[in-house]
Amino acid sequence: MTRAKAIKQRPNDPLSPLRRDVSLLGEILGDTIKDQAGTSVFHAVEKVRTLSKSIREGATHKAVVLPKLLGALPKKDLRELTRAFAFFLNLSTIAEQHHRIRRRHDYRKAGAAPQKGSLDEVLARLRKNGKSSTAIIKALLEQKVELVLTAHPTEIVRRTIFEKYRRIADTLWQLDRVDLDASEVEAAHETLRREVLACWLTDEIRRTRPTPLDEVRAGLTVIEKSLWDAVPNLLRDLEGAWRRHLRSEMPADWMPFSFGSWMGGDRDGNPNVTPEMTEKTLYLHRWYGAKLYAHEVEDLLGRLSMSHANPALRERVGDVAEPYRAILRPLHRRLIATMAYYDAVFYGKTIPETEEKLITDVEEIREPLRFCYDSLVSIGAKRMADGRLKDLLRRLACFGVGLAKLDLRQESTKHTEVWDAWTKRKGEPLFSERSEEDRIAYLEAQIEAGEAFDAEFLADEDLFPVLGVFGVIAKNGRELFGAYLISMARNASDVLAVEALQAKCGVKAALRVVPLFEKISDLQQAGHTLDRLLSLTSYRSRLHGRQEVMLGYSDSAKDGGRLTANWELYRAQEALVAVGKKHGVRLTLFHGRGGTVSRGGGPTYQALAAQPPGSVDGSLRVTEQGEMIQAKFGFTELALRSLEVYTGATLSATLCPPPKPTAAWRKRMDELSGKALASFRARVQEDEGFVRYFQQATPVNELGTLNIGSRPARRKAGGGIETLRAIPWIFGWTQTRLLLPPWLGFAAALEGSKEETAALRAMYRDWPFFRSKVDLLEMVLAKADLRIARHYHDRLVEPALKPLGEKLFEELETVRRSVLRISGHRTLLEDNPVLQRSVQLRNPYVDPLNHIQAEILWQLRQNEDDTELLDIFRLSVNGIAAGMRNTG
User: Fold this and answer.
1) Known catalytic residue at 802
2) Which is the catalytic residue, given 164, 415, 504, 558?
3) Which residue, 650, 626, 630, 648, is CA-closest to 639?
4) CB burial class (10 A; 0-12, 13-18, 19+) of residue 201?
5) From the CB of residue 482, how many other CB atoms can be counted at a distance below 10 Å?
6) Tag placement on the chain: N or C end, fewer CB within 10 Å?
7) Strongest mean pLDDT among 136-145, 350-359, 706-715, 878-887
8) Could you confirm whether 152 is annotated as catalytic?
9) What is the mean predicted confidence (pLDDT) over 339-360?
10) pTM: predicted TM-score of the whole model, two decimal places
11) How confident is the model at residue 154 (pLDDT cuts 50, 70, 90)?
12) Which one of the listed residues 152, 280, 414, 519 is annotated catalytic?
């Protein structure tokens, strides 16, 4: 953060621009700290930074000095120092993200090799591997990827600060221009100084917990600010790649991806997502959609001033001077009226009087636009048609009227409670006490009868949180909705229970019902459960040939450890695909992934390449959660790359699936999984001191003060790890740098003889599934830091629990040795030098924040009402999260 020395550009060094940006931002931050916090704070920051860096470079004898230095600072200075390190890590992230964008542009320059994962690279590789243009085109036209945005409490950065970060990134992009003169460079630098100052003067701590509607707005803002432009821009890129490699024209209406959302619809364990909240969510979706489409139509009104038109358009608008404007003006008025209406109903204002019919269906927007497009093409103005007009038609195909289709999610037992209440009311045997076959027969009869619940039952206050949402579906229709998801699904009757509830609540256009298998035992039975469901002729007749099933990565890993969960997820997918083929039903797998490795996170291309053969099959749904939404889609250029990779990876996994595992690999994975499961559960579920150690050695109990999500940390009050949500379980260990969830259980599984090591090396070399698990584990181990974790242990844990911590530290070291032995690497991330360097560069800035947090936690636990300490703690969490990147 000191004044940067001139960065000497190294020939052919792709990292030089990144170092230049980090140096510039660090210099500006240092000047800002001196101006705003004073030179004494600035010198303290520099002293701590230098000391931390020297410790990382080998001066381990200085490690005892750092906590003493930090402990001697007054609270005011400690707060500013915490802010400084946290802010620098966020600025570094901006620079790294911008560098990713810069590298993408370098790859796209004339003569450059295509970037891995781009459609250019994928199509060239497929053609080289013997795939015909016909086969590739067929796969592309059938391909559909849906990315579902979810609001998980790992988004540390406030939206107001993120907007400032966006402007900083835009300015870095401007500084990359080679034609800037000296005054323009200085103006850009001044903009950076202004934005950094604005961030420093803004409170980065959320003072109130966000509501579900705040989360909805955040998700829709990502669409508005980034994805709205990324989608048509990417389609233009894909159009060029299609033409170059497949020697044909890409269909104008092809749309390989779409978006969904759980924000405002995910009520699993979140009492704040009420039926009224879901209805307001739909109002927001409609308002944002009308706003964005109105803006685009207004732009077209300015562009399409031509008087020439084809007969069809003339017949529609009559003999007017400007036919295109004549057909678009009424559409624009309807969109404006739609905005005004949903603004009024959202805020409870008087509904504005208007003669305009509201927009309720995507076809009402598409139809006049198609008239314009076809007319322009027919009069020889295809170049005009293929501009902003085609972009808008593509946006319609991707986003629909509500921008993202809203999924609804509820826990399976909540539906059982409703059916218990109904059977009790009717004087029949309780639903929950019936056998599975009796439940199936009863629910099928309820669906067939089509009789609605009586009004008194529907109005029951205790049942309304569950039943009320079906009224929202019935009122609003299917246009804005995606799927109805059942978390903790176990039986075929769980799916039928929701189908029957839709029927008895007056839902005419029923939503598709998707079981979510999460626990290890449920994953093991997933194939059998789906087989029982698809064996019902009446159920299959309602499917239209496609079944969706969701797989939970977070709770399965928390239930049985990551190694076992990943193997059971793999086996469940194989079983589900086989069942789908048996019944002639095409399967869509919905992957409930998070940002961290423990929750299914990791590089997209690697993840899809490691799926079981036949499980992708051109159709894919994936959740994008927490901070990963901003990391992947926060800027338009980042979104372009992310969508491009999803498109190419899905195509590649469909046409070139990985090899099936051999019988020997399967046997060994069963053995590894069994050992890992026993070890994980012995530690997490059977060791009486483990929960207390977790609570003492990590800030998990204090994370509730952060106000970073609308959901409670636990599904149910009380209990141990089993009732804790997966996110705080992972977040807590990430803050202390032990990163326990991704590796716990691996030590018992991977330790073995030379013969076993040789077999694992062969699996690592030849089986993408196994290789991806080891590579991701290696990345986790590179980020883990035993010295830092031990500092929390020494400072915060009671003596009686310290032996447990020592065992965990030994296990981490065992896993580290095993991974290097299997991968054949001498050091962690040896084959990923970019990530390795990023981790190394961040460590000296994260380390002081860990020391500060450990000390503040100790003091807070003596005086939990100290608001100054609480603020410093919150700032330290923000900074460590920024430094670790994927935190929850």
Assistant:
1) no
2) 558
3) 630
4) exposed
5) 25
6) N
7) 136-145
8) yes
9) 92
10) 0.92
11) very low
12) 152
